Amino acid sequence: MCLAIPMRITATDGAAATIEADGLVQQTSLMLVPDARVGDYVLVHAGFAIAVLDSDDAAERLALFEEIAGMAAGDEPGPGIDPKADRPYDPSI
Amino acid sequence: MEVCGTHTMAISRYGLRDLLPAGMRLVSGPGCPVCVTAVGDLDVVVALARLPEVTIVTFGDLVRVPSSRSSLAAERAAGADVRVVYAPTDALELAAAQPERQFVLVGIGFETTAPTVAGALLMARERNLRNFSVLSLHKTMPGALRALLDGGESRIDGFILPGHVSVVTGSDCYRFLPAEYGVGGVVAGFTAADVLEALLLLARQRRPAIEIGYRRAVTTAGNRVAQELLSRVFTPCDAVWRGLGLIAGSGLRLADEFRDYAAEERFTVEPGEPVEPRGCRCGEVLRGLIDPPECALFGRRCTPETPVGACMVSSEGSCAAHFRYRAIDDAMGADA
Amino acid sequence: MPDSGRILLGHGSGGRLYRDLVRDVFLAHFANPVLERLDDAAALACSGRIAFTTDAHVVQPLAFAGGDIGRLAVAGTVNDLATAAARPLGLAAAFVIEEGFEIARLHEVCASMAATAAEAPVEIVTGDTKVVQRGAADGLFITTTGVGEIVVTHDVSAAAAAVGDELLLSGTLGDHALAVLAARGDFEMTLDVSSDCAPLWRLTEAALAAGGPAVHFMRDPTRGGLATVLAELAEEAVLGIEVDETALPVSPAVRSACDLLGYDPLALANEGKMVFAVAPEAAEAVLQALRGRPEGARATRIGTLVAEHPGRVALRTSYGTRRVVDMPVGELLPRIC
Question: Which CATH number applies to B5-32+141-212: 3.40.440.10, 3.40.50.11750, 3.30.360.10, 1.20.120.140?
Answer without folding.
Answer: 3.40.50.11750
